[in-house]
């Protein structure tokens, strides 16, 4: 009788014995000699040589950190123990480590999870001597580290979240002291990218290919239909999009189609095959056949990193994957005081051959369905599913590496999602875009989601571009500031209203008439003053570079006040270089000075010292700063949020200016003493040396010359 049920009972018995042994053997993780950062050189990587280091509840070592005296700090931290792992990487600002005294591991009842909460992936300090210190915990193919400020004490933990002991050199973190926070952060990534631990798994953002489709406006099914998609409503929506005056060029078909089952003793759906359920009786071809070169050119499909939310079912029908999957019992804990959930399932065997086979099957099925790209979701939870295997970090590495490689070799663009854990971030060799926030909804929490995205840009913007998620352009509460945020994000922009509700007036300033997004040259990051301040109490500002050493600053009111005052000063300009590549340091102020153009007020001034403005509650404003050269400054198209990315200067002399407009439209220029003219349109003075050139809208690559009267 026992033999009959042995295959079913074995995973439960193994899991029970494994975790029981962990609990019985439990003692404190070895707390090693402190690392004194005040004694270190300007920039470097801290490593440790270990031999037979055995994990205890996933952690193999803990090192205290002796930090230099600091004025304030910010840490990006998250939990990695539940199904929303990698979903909420939140910035926490502080002026003292006392801020974290009540954040202690003893509140976690189940000690299997004591090292899975409040994992810090990036720590930035402003020191009392005026310098900045950036600390970037590193991830290799076998170990991960993170900073912990729990209990008001700073430490770095080294983990595998597995059972095998570790021998070898383990990277802890890269660090850098600098005179500004952006250089300090960039130097950390430089150390990581050039290190033997990380160089094969990450690379500079500019050395990756940004997928062509993400240069255009997109649409996703999720916030319109959730999981209730069908062949009928998806096909109908695509037909409506193709007829809509808003030029959406690509579509993601999100969750709701998978061939899955929910087991009697399970919590989440589990994959049966990479096929479709009965809501799509004709498969994908009738839908992907709707693609059109001039309208919806690309289609993508949502995938789950583990197959289904609960992994792969033991009743799966994928015969060619049989040898690459193994029965498993996964555990998760969403909150320290919550209940542990158990998932009996199958997961990918922890070897590269099996990972490659699984993701080959996933991507090949997507290609055969007619899809051009994939959004692969719940990536950090896939890592946590491997907790308790021989090495959870290595299993996640193999899976991410295989996914990256398979997509790259098949020319399938990869959009990463719920992948904010450093285990995933440090395994993005080819992909360049990752979702940077929790799901954007119709509520006021979109303010935090916006801040979360820009803070993640500060952390990972040297190797990734943040995806700020889909949003509703018809939502009167949040659409305006969400649009402004996306205008400067440097990443993809996609909407999720039903097509009949597209807000064309709000969308048009983001794009050209063919749907091409007017993208900044690098991801926007918080200005230096905003890195350490509470967005709920002051004007929140971010900055991004645009063409010809111009830049865009977006300002938001996420406070409870009806309106707040904001300021743009000349010193802000230098920080536009934050995520430029190649990075050559902060920008210098132009010899002839700067001008600032207020997009909402339709007003420009020379920026002699500072420019003050008001931002209404739950609104955003955008400002374009341009350098003056030979008396000229170019703002760009007046009808676009980011005018600085709408033109190319061909020649600039004291007597004339030659530019090419990506697309013609009303143009704003500045001259410090004279009135310009052109044969292409009427020139009108706006005051303060600013001029509007009235041009017919919509002509591509218009060559224009302005001369002085």
From TrEMBL:
InterPro entries tied to this protein: Aldolase_TIM (IPR013785), GH (IPR017853), Glycosyl_hydrolases_36 (IPR008811)
Keywords: Carbohydrate metabolism
A Pfam family of this chain: Raffinose_syn
Gene3D superfamilies: Aldolase class I
Protein name per Swiss-Prot or TrEMBL: Raffinose synthase
């Amino acid at each position: 009788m026992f033999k009959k049920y042995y295959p079913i009972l074995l995973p439960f018995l193994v899991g029970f014995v494994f975790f029981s042994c962990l609990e019985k053997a439990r003692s404190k993780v070895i707390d090693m000699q402190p690392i004194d950062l005040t004694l270190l050189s300007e920039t470097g990587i801290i490593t440790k040589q270990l031999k037979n280091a055995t994990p205890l509840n996933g952690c193999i070592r803990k090192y205290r950190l002796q930090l230099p005296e600091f004025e304030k700090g910010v840490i990006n931290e998250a939990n990695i123990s539940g199904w929303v792992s990698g979903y909420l990487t939140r910035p926490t600002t502080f002026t003292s480590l006392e801020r974290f005294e009540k954040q202690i591991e003893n509140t976690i009842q189940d000690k299997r999870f004591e090292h899975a909460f409040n994992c810090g992936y990036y720590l930035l300090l402003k020191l009392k001597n005026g310098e900045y210190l950036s600390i970037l915990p590193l991830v290799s193919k076998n170990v991960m580290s993170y900073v912990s400020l729990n209990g008001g004490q700073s430490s770095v933990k080294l983990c595998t979240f597995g059972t095998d002991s570790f021998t070898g050199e383990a990277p802890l973190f890269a660090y850098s002291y600098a005179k500004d926070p952006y250089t300090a952060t960039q130097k950390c990534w430089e150390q990581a990218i050039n290190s033997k631990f990380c160089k094969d798994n990450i690379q500079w953002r500019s050395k990756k290919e940004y997928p062509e489709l993400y240069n255009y406006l997109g649409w996703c099914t999720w916030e319109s239909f959730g999981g209730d998609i069908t062949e009928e409503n998806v096909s109908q929506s695509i037909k409506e999009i193709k007829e809509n005056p808003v030029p959406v060029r690509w579509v993601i078909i999100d969750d709701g189609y998978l061939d899955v089952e929910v087991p009697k003793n399970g919590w989440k759906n589990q994959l049966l095959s990479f096929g479709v359920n009965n809501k799509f009786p004709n498969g994908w071809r009738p839908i992907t056949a709707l693609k059109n070169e001039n309208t919806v050119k690309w289609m993508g499909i949502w995938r789950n990193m583990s197959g289904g939310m609960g992994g792969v079912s033991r009743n799966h029908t994928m015969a060619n994957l049989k040898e690459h999957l193994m029965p498993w019992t996964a555990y998760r804990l969403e909150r320290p005081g919550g209940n542990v959930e158990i998932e009996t399932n199958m997961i990918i065997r922890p070897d590269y051959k099996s990972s490659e086979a699984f993701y080959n099957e996933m991507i090949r099925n997507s290609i055969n369905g007619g899809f051009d790209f994939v959004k692969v979701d719940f990536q950090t939870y896939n890592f946590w599913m491997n907790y308790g295997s021989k090495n959870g970090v290595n299993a996640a590495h193999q899976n991410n590496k295989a996914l990256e490689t398979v997509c790259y070799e098949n020319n399938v663009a990869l959009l990463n999602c719920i992948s904010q854990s450093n285990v995933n971030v440090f395994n993005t060799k080819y992909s360049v875009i990752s979702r940077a926030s929790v799901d954007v909804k119709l509520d006021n929490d979109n303010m935090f989601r916006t801040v979360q995205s820009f803070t993640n840009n500060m952390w990972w913007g040297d190797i990734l571009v943040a995806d700020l998620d889909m949003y509703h352009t018809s939502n009167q509460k949040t659409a305006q500031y969400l649009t402004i945020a996306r205008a400067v994000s440097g990443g993809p922009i996609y909407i999720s209203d039903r097509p009949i509700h597209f807000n064309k007036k709000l969308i048009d300033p983001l794009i050209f008439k063919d749907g091409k997004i007017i993208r900044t040259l690098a991801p926007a990051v918080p200005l230096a003053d905003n890195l350490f301040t509470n967005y709920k109490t002051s004007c929140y500002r971010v900055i991004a570079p645009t063409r010809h050493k111009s830049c865009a600053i977006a300002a938001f009111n996420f406070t409870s006040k009806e309106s707040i005052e904001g300021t743009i000063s000349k010193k802000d300009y230098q920080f536009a270089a934050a995520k430029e590549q190649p990075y050559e340091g902060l920008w210098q102020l132009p010899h002839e000075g700067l001008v600032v153009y207020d997009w909402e007020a339709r007003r420009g001034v020379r920026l002699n010292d500072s420019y003050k403005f008001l931002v209404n509650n739950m609104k955003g404003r955008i400002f374009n700063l341009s350098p003056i050269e030979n008396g000229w400054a170019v703002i760009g198209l007046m009808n676009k949020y980011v005018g600085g990315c709408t033109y190319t200067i061909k020649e600039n002399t004291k007597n004339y200016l030659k530019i090419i407009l990506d697309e013609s439209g009303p143009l704003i220029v500045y001259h410090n003493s004279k009135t310009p003219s052109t044969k292409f349109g009427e020139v009108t003075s706006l005051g303060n040396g600013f001029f509007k050139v009235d041009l017919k809208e919509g002509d591509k690559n218009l060559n224009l010359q302005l001369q002085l009267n």
